[in-house]
Amino acid sequence: MSETVPPATAAKVKGFNCPQCGAAVALRGFEHTLTVVCVQCLSVLDAKDPNYQVLQTFQERERIRPLIPLGSRGKLHGTVYEVIGFQERTIHVDGMPYSWHEYLLFNPFQGFRYLSQYHGHWNDINTVRSVPEPAPTGGKPGVRLLGETYRHFQSATAETTFVMGEFPWQVRVGDKAAVQDFIAPPRLLSAETTESETVWSLGEYLSGARVWDAFQLPESPPPATGVFANQPSPYPGRLRRTWVMCLILLGVLLNLAILISALAGKEEVFRQSYRHPRELGTEAAFVTSVFDLPGRPSSVELSIDTDLRNDSAYFSFALINEATGQAWDFGRQVTHSGGGKARDRALVPTVPPGRYYLRVEPELLSRSGFLNYELLLRRDVPAAAFYWIAALLLVVPPVFVGIGAVSFEKSRWQESDYGESSAASEDEEEDEE
Amino acid sequence: MRQHPFYLTYGLIVLSLVGLAQYRGWSLLSVNEVKNVPRTVRDNPGAYRSHYRGFPGYFGGK
Amino acid sequence: MKTANCPNCGARIDFRWSSAVQTVCAYCRSVLVRHDVDLERVGQVGDLPPDSSPIQIAAEGLYRQKPFVVVGRILYEYERGGWNEWHLIFSDSSSGWLSDAQAEYAVSFLSPEQGSALPPAESVHRGTKFQWNGVQYEVSSLTRARYRGVEGELPFQYWNKEEVLFADLRGGDGRFATIDYSEANPLLFLGEAVQFEDLRLKNLRQFEGWS
């Protein structure tokens, strides 16, 4: 095809000298740039004016150095962007100023994006053109966009407190906009309202490491302190997996208990019934006949089954090894309460095999009638208490993780309009930039 | 599962301890172990007194 | 493709689109209206101001699997900047528009709903809702723009405008509507926002420092 229409000439980067201080200024945003800030004297200039008229001069104020230098290029979402603008914006909450930085990224084909940075937390932001609809969130106001519901986090007036580089809109230090933030971690939806319109933008949380990697910056990114509005919680997946692991371990515990119960001997080694007249009160101590404890060292369970009625008795016991003279000394209080029978059990630990007898000393109140009771000894009886202790120990870690998750979310919302008044918490990292 | 090596290890230790406890016949009962009870106790059980009698015993009344 | 000669300067004019109503001579910038037999010079436009749209005439792309060629443009300016409406011709000779506002792109088409179906300019305010083709739209902004110029082939006569009023409407799913109140009969365009990479544009403009 013969080209009778001359093709548009390649766009060139315009350069000029700052009318305020004479320094060289380049317009790397081509014709998109409306306002440009002289890098030397920080005067705000009109990029569309033939003489680049000064719109605002730099007032005595600290000069801020952006962490990503202007002119840096980095790759995000497969596209190379150049940092052409930078601003610091400040809100006031409970009288305290909070400032963050915004980096304007430009690609001649893909347009503009933003990176924001606050206390080491980064966000990758783009304007959205669909208007979110109001949505109920059970409590806080919310909006819905592209199938996701965002909860209101904060409303504040943002003031531009420092500018550098180029902008495709009118910018002055001192500009104010009403900002409303809604979160659905890791995303953040912001509405910025000026007199003329409301602009919505969607941000996605980014770690400092990703930013440093994209722009190939030296050293390390600033560490992230505290929990940021849309910072994704590391907990949900972890919490679920921990509880799953807990259920698995509890299942193993249950199977272990069943197995142990099946394998345990629980043999009866001694059983005897007794009958004492009550009038005599406390009984004299007596010893049982000798019995055998075979097998490996194991627990020995003593069961006392009485016919006490509305009464109580104390039994003092000693399990004595006939050969070695080693004794296990303990006592049991048996009480009749409400319905049922008065009975009790004791589990003597790790008794070596051998021939044993039991010394018994019942202490009773004197009254009429008889006390009938039976003593039963069984060996190798599992202790149920250990299963409950194990279950409790197994549940402790997921509970701790759960507490961590709740604490994380509390820290997150502490920074919002819904947190406690920050006047009380001066020990937190709510310091100025 | 492999993402929680600490919890898994901890859980296995707990379960092993349970198994060990039941095998060795451990108990939570507070028992006084006394060595060398004289053989004469067999004939005179009333003479026996534990060296560390911790319990006040039951002597009637409240 | 039809060929003609500019009645003012004699330069050769090649038409990319058989249904073009108006074109601009690239050399003398005469606005030419096409009649059956010849071209009539109706006026002249100044040089277009410098602009950073990456799109240029003869660029090619794809919208919803339909290939198109960029054949013309209208350039507007308003208090916060400017934007381009690039005129697209699809392979089936239908006509569409690609708007480029600071690298935010949208493709729209002239809606058959015209005239009385459209609200008059006085009754349109921010937040007013309308419905066309079963889709709800809400007025997001009213823009008073200055017409800055035209280039290439257009499907209607469009030049030498004073001030133009546009109503921009947003619907769900990135849908977009514009009412152009420059003529006595308002024109409605319906479309949607598009991503740059989805258009698969070729033969784009070059930028210094960007390969």
Written overview of the protein:
The complex is a heterotrimer of chains A (433), B (62) and C (211). Chain A has helices spanning 208-215, 235-263, 384-414; strands at residues 14-17, 24-27, 35-37, 44-46, 54-56, 73-76, 79-93, 96-107, 111-118, 121-128, 133-136, 141-145, 148-167, 176-184, 187-193, 198-206, 267-277, 286-287, 291-293, 298-306, 312-321, 327-335, 342-351, 354-363, 370-379. Chain A has 433 residues and is of the alpha+beta class. Chain A folds into 3 domains: 7-232, no CATH class; 243-258 and 386-432, no CATH class; 267-381, Jelly Rolls, CATH 2.60.120.380. The longest helix of chain A is centred in the last third of the chain and has 31 residues, at 384-414. The two termini of chain A are 60 Å apart. Chain B has one helix spanning 5-24, and one strand spanning 32-34. Chain C is mainly β and 211 residues long. Chain C is built from no helices and 15 strands. The model of chain C has no long low-confidence stretch (mean pLDDT 86). The interface between A and C is large, with 33 and 40 residues.
Write the layout of secondary structure elements.
The complex is a heterotrimer of chains A (433), B (62) and C (211).
Chain A: E1 14-17, E2 24-27, E3 35-37, E4 44-46, E5 54-56, E6 73-76, E7 79-93, E8 96-107, E9 111-118, E10 121-128, E11 133-136, E12 141-145, E13 148-167, E14 176-184, E15 187-193, E16 198-206, H1 208-215, H2 235-263, E17 267-277, E18 286-287, E19 291-293, E20 298-306, E21 312-321, E22 327-335, E23 342-351, E24 354-363, E25 370-379, H3 384-414
Antiparallel strand pairs in A: 1-2, 3-4, 3-13, 4-5, 6-7, 7-8, 7-13, 8-9, 9-10, 10-16, 11-12, 12-13, 13-14, 14-15, 15-16, 17-25, 18-24, 19-24, 20-23, 20-25, 21-22, 21-24
Helix pairs in contact in A: 2-3
Chain B: H1 5-24, E1 32-34
Chain C: E1 2-5, E2 12-15, E3 22-24, E4 30-34, E5 39-44, E6 60-63, E7 66-78, E8 81-90, E9 95-101, E10 104-110, E11 129-132, E12 135-152, E13 163-171, E14 175-180, E15 187-194
Antiparallel strand pairs in C: 1-2, 3-4, 4-5, 6-7, 7-8, 7-12, 8-9, 9-10, 10-15, 11-12, 12-13, 13-14, 14-15
